[in-house]
Amino acid sequence: MEKSITYFEKPGEENTSAVVEAVKTRARELGIKEVVIASTSGKTGVAMAEALKDTNINLIVVTHQYGSHDEGKWDMESQYVSSLNEMGIEIVSQSHMFSGIEKSLSKGTGGASRVEIVADTLRKLFGKGFKVAIEVVIMAADSGALSMESEVIAVGGTAYGADVACVIKPAHSNNFYGLQIREIICMPREK
């Protein structure tokens, strides 16, 4: 099989529309039925939902847990939540797979956990958006949002928006080594 990969010069929100189009195209080519996208505020999730609305592709939007930035508060913005709800898009909100309690323990006792080392390795070698794409697939799998029957497309971003997309065979967190990155659709060259 031969396939091209889109490389962006820099990470960032300005790549979002190109990522959305690349995901839609590749999902159709491969017959992929599920796309998982990271979205903190919901804006990026809405952009992908609008692009996929006339397809048979199931979109799962994954966001931070409550209290991620402000105690007891959710980062999702109400207008995006309303739009996603109106389109029937599932929103998964849970602790980050590569931090959660482990990060709290490291802060409180010093050192780094094995999970944080995995996250740092992915972040430093492939970029933050790539780490996020892998993480949200595991989060979606663990929450029961994925069928787990076939490959999915995972989308992540470095700060805002989307700048990475890849085809992944999903796995649950208790089977991390069962996860396989099968294709890179797009990613930034600079980390």
Structural description of this entry:
With 191 residues, the chain is of the alpha/beta class. It has a single domain, classed as Pyruvate Kinase, Chain: A, domain 1. It has helices at residues 16-30, 43-52, 78-86, 100-109, 114-126, 128-142; strands at 6-8, 34-38, 58-63, 90-93, 152-156, 164-169, 180-188. The protein has a 7-stranded mixed β-sheet, with helices on both faces. The radius of gyration is 16 Å and the shape is globular. It starts with 5 loop residues before the first strand and ends with a strand.
**Number of helices, where a helix is a run of at least 4 consecutive DSSP H or I residues:** 6
How widely separated are the two ends? 27 Å
- Give the helix proportion (percent range): 25-40%
The largest sheet is: 7 strands, mixed
Number of domains: 1
Based on DSSP secondary structure assignment, what is the total number of beta strands? Answer: 7
Q: Say which CATH homologous superfamily is assigned.
A: Pyruvate kinase, C-terminal domain
Q: Could you report the average pLDDT, rounded to the nearest whole number? A: 93
Q: What's the Cα radius of gyration?
A: 16 Å
| Backbone shape | globular
Strand content: 15-25%
Order of helices and strands: EHEHEHEHHHEEE
Task: Tell me what the CATH architecture is.
Answer: 3-Layer(aba) Sandwich
CATH first level: Alpha Beta
With strands numbered from the N-terminus, the spatial order across the biggest sheet is: 1-7-6-5-2-3-4
Q: Low-confidence segments, ≥5 residues, pLDDT <50?
A: none
Helix/sheet category: alpha/beta
Find the CATH topology: Pyruvate Kinase, Chain: A, domain 1
